[in-house]
Amino acid sequence: MATVDPKTVPYKTLYTGAKMPVVGMGTFGSDHADPEAVAASVRGAIPAGYRSFDCAACYGNEDVIGQIFADAFAEGLVTREELFIASKVWNDMHGDGDVLLACAKTLKDLKLDYLDMYYVHWPFPNYHAPGCDVDSRNPDAVPFTVERFMKTWRQMERLVDMGLTKHIGMSNMTIPKLEAVLPLCRIKPAAIEMELHPCFQQPELFKYCQDKGIEIVAFCPIGSPERPERDKMPEDIADIELPEMKAIAAAHGVHPAVICIKWSVQRGSCPIPFSLKEKNYVMNLKCVTEDPLTEEEMKIIEGLDRNNRLIKGHVFLWEGAKDWHDLWDEDGVIVK
Ligand SMILES: NC(=O)c1ccc[n+]([C@@H]2O[C@H](COP(=O)([O-])OP(=O)(O)OC[C@H]3O[C@@H](n4cnc5c(N)ncnc54)[C@H](OP(=O)(O)O)[C@@H]3O)[C@@H](O)[C@H]2O)c1
């Protein structure tokens, strides 16, 4: 019997009818956790009751995580059908035919026949060295244009046709970008993965996705306290250190991180927290099955939004760009 009965964890129903649990486990161990340490959390998370996992090629650990899945299936811990496994195409694999290669490599590493969700990790082609540990500025980096993105999305749609993934999604999008690309999609994104935590609530983008029937997956739901140094800015505010979060946590007898998860789910999104510690990742799942936040507590947290984006995308910027939100035309002119 799992620590948390997966049947008690709420889920979202995607437009195919597939069910996505409202809490998944992230697998980006930042720069301080080696692949084996991240895989150990995945290994523990399955018997703990997790059924959803957020993977990505650029996290550099899909092969070890794949072995955990293979072992879990072989041991009869869980079946493939019971898991919801997502991955993402990295920025250096947006070229013609590359998306298929990237997906094939991910499937091989994860030792799976199909994915449940495959995201475009960032909406522009770029190069980033393996391990994510260097500045990614590169003379070949190119900004977002509708044409370039749709070239990538057409390949994503092919993956669904080929049965290699059940759903496709986007990540790190903005409303102007979605406005530009959604009308062109033959297969619409089933989910959008975006940074969301109390100090960065993106209310407009959140409502936009809800209105379009696109599920919202919240990354860095706890405010990613251990994110790499390159993503840290002196002005960043730590969600879990805010007195309001600490007070609500004290009232529930839990860590403020847990309040972040409860709030995220009650708001309507699907957080994908990561933890190296069993006690923490078990609680991150269990907390959505018990002791909900009150309306008043939800309102207090809503008031904490400071538009404090943590993952600023600055490491991806190409020469001359100021903001990765910009839309560019083919001649390199900012059109937004
Ligand atoms: N699409 C994208 O571009 C993108 C970008 C970033 C992240 N992601 C995804 O989102 C996932 C989550 O983001 P993240 O890992 O950066 O940040 P996060 O989940 O917001 O924070 C993780 C940190 O919170 C701590 N923590 C977790 N649960 C806790 C608890 N119950 N009590 C106290 N501390 C707790 C963990 O420390 P301990 O290990 O000590 O518990 C860890 O340091 C990633 O793993 C990745 O899958 C996607």
Distance, first to last CA: 53 Å
Question: Do you know the CATH architecture?
Answer: Alpha-Beta Barrel
Poorly predicted tracts of residues = 129-136
Please give the largest β-sheet.
8 strands, parallel
Name the hetero compounds present: NADP nicotinamide-adenine-dinucleotide phosphate
Give the oligomer, counting copies of the same chain as homo and different chains as hetero. single chain
Q: What's the arrangement of strands in the largest beta sheet?
A: 3-4-5-6-7-8-9-10
User: What is the number of helical segments per DSSP (H or I, 4+ residues)?
Assistant: 10
Mean pLDDT: 90
Helix content class: 25-40%
Q: Would you identify the CATH H-level superfamily?
A: NADP-dependent oxidoreductase domain
Task: Walk me through the structure.
By secondary structure, this protein is α/β, with parallel strands linked by helices. The protein is built from 10 helices and 10 strands. The protein is globular and about 55 Å long. It starts with 10 loop residues before the first strand and ends in a 34-residue tail after the last helix. It binds NADP nicotinamide-adenine-dinucleotide phosphate (NAP). The site of NADP nicotinamide-adenine-dinucleotide phosphate (NAP) has 30 residues, from α8 and α9.
